[in-house]
Amino acid sequence: MAWTSKLALAAGLAFLPGSAWADAVNISYLTHWSPETVALLENAAKEYSKTHPDVTVTVRAVPFGDLLTTLRSQSGSDGATIGGIYDLWLPELARDKLVAPAPEAVAAEVKGAWPAGVVSAASVGGALYGIPNEIDVYALNYNKELFKQAGIDAAPKTWEEFRETAKKLTKKDAGQQGFGMINSWAAGVVHPFASLLVSNGGELVANGKPALDSKQAGETFEFYDGLIKDGSSDPSMATADANTTGPFLDNFVSGKTGMIIMANWWESALKTGMGDKFANIATAPIPVGPSGDKPHSISYSWMTVVNAKAGEAEQKAAWDFLAWLNGAKSGQNGASAMSDILMSMGILPSRSSDIEAHKEKLGTEFLAGYVSVLSDAKPFPVVPGGQEFSESLQQTLEALQYGQVSAKEAQAKAQADAISILERAAK
Amino acid sequence: MTNGYRASAGIMLAPAVTLIGVFILLPMLLTVWLSFNDWSTQTPFSEARFVGLANFQDIFGSTSVGRDFKGALVNTAIYTALSVAIILPLSVLFGLLVYQRDVGGGTLLRTVLFSTYMVPMIAVALVWSKLYSPSEGPFNQMLGLIGIDPQPWLSSPRSALISIVLLNVWQQVGYFTVLAIAGLTQIPGSLYEAATLDGANRTEQFRFITLPLLRRTLLFSAVIAIINAVQVFEPVALITQGGPVGSTNVLTYHIRRVGIERAQGGLGSAMAVMLMLSLVVVVCALFAFMSRKDDE
């Protein structure tokens, strides 16, 4: 080969990777999932890259307690392109222009394929900002073995039965509590309280205004106070850490807590912690309060959003990847790849076709209890200042749990704080 | 000649002064300015709106903003006071033990003590959160062996902050012991020999020789211990998240929550300014106290 031909070949080879780099797009996905779940997401991303070789998706995980801070502090063009967020955070992230509205085609697909309530939680001012993925709902979890030992046949249906059951399950000498109230984690404290409140006919926020001064809310504060005064709930057994685990989880999995109000997503944590003993755990609707008509619960959703400060090519690739990940063709048997990942953790997917595709798994004893209460669940209020409102209510409820305030004081304080927080956030 | 000397001194100082100005003074001034503004950390500085002393009124007011800030300020003060009050005497005690030349294994003890300071806080937090576990934690199991009931440690608002203080003492005491040993080496041995000849016992030697001559070392240790304690963040973020009932919500953690998580930059800056002022007042008071003692 003549030296000129060799030179031309070398130049051509050198040029080829260069032209490939010019079109390559790197997008990153920020989540709070565990390493096992992150591995599933990475596999899905590799699958996507087979048909989109120019797009590389990297996944990064941080503890749940650091997720919002990471999203906010790394919100520039070099931050994560995609973020998995809790619906409560959306109004403020949208207000601060940190998340991009979904392109029309994506918005149209989401509006047609997801229930209206879930779409509304992913929207601000009528514009869709995220593709919803999981929906979480609260129910009563109880340990059947402890129920059997205490001679209790069935899960409580009313607050009166709940209180009696909790008393029977409490064995102080054995370090066993009837009902576990979580502390040191805002959602873990507020969501069970809110579930009992809606099951008593009340609401946290009505028409954008705090409604903690209602009769129903007063009864719910009194109910919490009663459980503490009975000695049926020991706050020192219920502390959570930054990863939403800790003593409250340890005590439930080791059979030292009889009942807890918790969401479906912790199925995987229970299975990991309990092994074969997971079969002892059953699910029941939230007991109905004196002012309630039937069991209700609260629900909240998660969604994936795209960084508004990412480059145009990155945003475009991110929406395309998310549409594929959440689409009906990326997973097994007509399910989305996202729903397959969620179901591995026991999390309910929110896309209508995903619920149909996972019908069999959703019929297992543990999850069926959650699916059955979903239709009567009320979405947790998504308002500006919602996170601060949750954290403030958390402090008040914890003060009640530890006997620092009475039920009446807690109710008055919670309402006054909520008014001031939501008013300031609305300015 | 004098002008030339001043010019050359100015030229030589300029790089350091510029760096300090840009990277230390400017951010401090910016924080002070932002504390008088309503500003979201997600927006440019140009969008900050002057609100005068409103942020300071809020953080000292009766709403949840004020209550949480005042709670965090008190928690930080308690944490700092307890940390310094435990670390300094312990560091002197360990320093005296390790400094005894006639005791074997001193170097090993010194290494062991200092090693806790080198362990990353993430590892310390991980291990200590399990040590403190109310049901299965080794601490409670050990207490059980000597007939003491299990303690709630991090799970009770009464003991959570003290538990974090103990963790801090464990990690920091080795560093301050090394400082104490450095101070002890500066005390001439002849003073002890003379005191022994005069009939002074060990306690009197400690009271009238060691302690007075360690004063400057202790002042330095106290200032560093205060600054370290005021900046506590990791154990709270990693283990307690400020709970239960806000009992471990210290200022740095609270400022991060307000300023970054809630993006309330103005309020966060006002809190940071108050933290800075408190620190300045405490350190100046400490220096003034020591200066008076020196004069006496």
TrEMBL record, chain A:
Domain of life: Bacteria
Pfam families noted in UniProt: SBP_bac_1
Signal peptide start and end residues: 1-22
Keywords: Periplasm, Signal
Subcellular location: Periplasm
Gene3D superfamilies hit by this protein: Periplasmic binding protein-like II
Primary residence: periplasm
Family recorded in the similarity comment: Belongs to the bacterial solute-binding protein 1 family.
Protein name, per record: Sugar ABC transporter substrate-binding protein
Organism of origin: Mesorhizobium retamae
From TrEMBL, chain B:
Species this chain originates from: Mesorhizobium retamae
Keyword field contains Cell membrane: yes
Gene3D superfamilies: MetI-like
Subcellular location: Cell membrane
Cited Pfam families: BPD_transp_1
Keywords: Cell membrane, Membrane, Transmembrane, Transmembrane helix, Transport
All residue ranges annotated as the ABC transmembrane type-1 domain in the record: 73-288
Membrane association type: Multi-pass membrane protein
Protein's recorded name: Sugar ABC transporter permease
Domain of life per record: Bacteria
Principal subcellular localisation of the protein: membrane
InterPro entries: ABC_transporter_permease, MetI-like, MetI-like_sf
Transmembrane segments annotated in the record for this chain: 12-36, 77-99, 111-129, 173-192, 213-233, 267-290
SUPFAM superfamilies from the UniProt entry: MalF N-terminal region-like (SSF160964), MetI-like (SSF161098)
Family under the similarity heading: Belongs to the binding-protein-dependent transport system permease family.
